[in-house]
Each structure stands twice: as structure tokens, then as C-alpha cells.
Amino acid sequence: MPAHGFEAEVPLALTDEVRAKTDHLYDRVANxxxxxxxxxxxxxxxxxxxxxxEKNAVILAHNYMTPDIFYAVGDFRGDSLQLAKEAAAxxxxxxxxxxxxxxxxxxxxxxxEKTVLIxxxxxxxxxxxxxxxxxVRLLKQRYPGVPVVxxxxxxxxxxxxxxxxxTSSNAVQVVEHICAEWxxxxxxxxxxxxxxxxxxxxxxxxxxTWAGACEVHERxxxxxxxxxxxGNPGVVVLAHPECPPEVLAEADFAxxxxxxxxxxxxxxxxxxxxxxxxxxxxNVALENPGVEFVxxxxxxxxxxxxxxxxxxxxxxxxxxxxxxxxxIAEKARLAVQRMVDLPLSGPATNFRPHADRDVxxxxxx
Length: 365
Ligand code: SF4
Description:
Elements: H1 16-29, H2 35-54, E1 57-62, H3 67-72, E2 76-78, H4 80-89, E3 94-98, H5 101-110, E4 115-117, H6 133-142, E5 148-151, H7 156-159, E6 164-166, H8 171-182, E7 186-190, H9 193-200, E8 206-210, H10 222-231, E9 236-239, H11 245-250, E10 253-254, H12 257-267, E11 271-275, H13 278-287, E12 292-294, H14 308-317, H15 326-341, E13 361-363
Helix pairs in contact: 1-2, 2-14, 4-5, 5-15
């Protein structure tokens, strides 16, 4: 039994056939993964790609997946919402979520007729686990008549209690839209207190939030950014809005993973640092060979539970299937769909906060 605990159903060996099936994929990651290391992965990659065809399956690979997963077996790549939309649009009957559990739930919510698999049931998220549907019901009692906007990084039962969902790309626009629709200047934006504070600083709406945080992004500090700049003169700093506002204040640009990726592609800075999860820099770097990346980053332990080996195991055994109660799924789908249907236009938000604006309350259990 190999160290990772999974025994493949067919023997895996680096044969000429495997090389023929995988050499073109190696070209995508050759700047990052040594050939010797690739040769260890190639048999698993070839077997996964064969199984996708046999089982009419696709793999949705989040931006935080390691490059071997992202570029060699991922059929669709992007942030959680892009992936869920791809899940709904694909003709494939089986979806393997190379990401965390709430993402698999969102795929199931948008594609209830499809089989959605997550390779590790331990791939959770500190934001998603910070709040429950019961917590949202209590918040609504505390603030009657105030619309609830929920970040997509939440479980289905939280989404089901929500008026509309948002992502880090569209949170400011969603908040302003729902306040206009409800004729109010107050909004509940949960569960990420830092995203909420960063949104509050971009709008004149009164934002109430929840004491949740992404354990990866909340660890970055303003001092980290100043040290990076001191050690790398001229570096362009891009930060994710799940970071504390003090970090965003030190950055040149702040936006979602897709916005950061788009910035690098368009602007082609000479030297850049992405203040986010480590694999994001690797994946963006491979697509922008002319840009030099400074690489201090934080790993997401949940994302890193997804490996080539457990993706193979998921496809061989059709585990672990993700189920969402149909009543909850239908309510949650409405909240996601309302966001998807919004006529949001213009470029993704660059969070440039007004220092004098902040949330009016951070609630907790
Ligand atoms: S990076 Fe943060 S928000 Fe994303 S899955 Fe990990 S803990 Fe959750």
C-alpha cells in the first residue's frame, strides 16, 4: 500500500503509452516541475484522464490546486463561482471537485441531476465552518428587514437562509444592488469579517458582519507587505480581499483570484507578489513566463488535502458523493441564481478603501 493510503485498481507504471499520453501535458508545467518529479506523477495523471473519458466525468480545478492537478487533469480552472457555472453548463454526468467541500455543494446545488464527487471529505474551510443556518436565522431576528448577503464560501444551509450570494469579485455591487432593491442603507454581509470590512470601506451602506475569517488570508499583516517591498524594490503587490484592511491599504491592487490573475495577464508587471494561497502564484506564473514572482504565501491546509492520488481514488470508486437536501438545495440555488442573474458590468472591483468607513457591527454566536 503506498504512503498516501490508496491502492490504484490497475498497476501504475511509467510506460511508453503513459509517456505518449502525458508528454504534451508536461509542457504546461515544465517551468515549475522537474522531469523526475513529473515521471512519478505521469502514470496517475494518465489513468485519471482515461477514467474521465470512461465515466463521462470532468474535473473542476480551483485556482488554489497544485499545478499538477490544475494543468494536467483539470478540465475547468478558476474561482469557485466560475467552476460552479462550468459544472452547470457541462454535459458530463460526473463532476469531481478539486477544491473544498462548500464548492462541491455549490456545484451540486447548480447541477442537482449530476453526480458530484469530492476526493477528500476533510477538505473544509474556516469560513464555511464559522457559521450555520441557525446562526443566520438568529441574525435575521436581531436585524429584521435587513437583507442578508452571503459569501459563496458557505455551506448550503447558510445559503438557503440568504437573500443573495456574492463572491469577492462582485460583493460591492451585490451589496449596493440589494440595498437599492430593498430601499435600505443597511445590509448583513457574512461570514467573512475582513471581506465585509473591505466592502464597507468601498460603499456608504451600513454593513453588519460575522466574526468569520479565512485562516489563510487573515495571517497576512501590513508589516509583511512592508518587508516584501523593502526586500524587492519595485515589486507590485496584489492582495485578496479576505485579507485584513490594513494589508489591502499597503497593496497596489486588491481583488479576487480571477481579478489578480487578470491583472498580471494584462499589466505584465516586471516583478509581482500575490498575497494569497501559495498555489495561485505557481499557476499564474506558468501562464506569465515574462513576470517574476516573489513567493511569500500561506498554504490552505484544506485545499492541500486534494491530491492526484485521491482524485484517482474518487474516480475509481465514485466516492465521496456530495448530497444536499433537495429543499435546502432549492432555497440555496435561488440565492446563488439571483447573484448570477444580476446585470453586473465593468471590471472586477479593485478594493481601494476609504479609511473612514468600516462595518457597524461584527456579530458572533
Ligand atoms: S483559502 Fe481560506 S477561504 Fe479558501 S478554502 Fe482555504 S480557508 Fe477557506
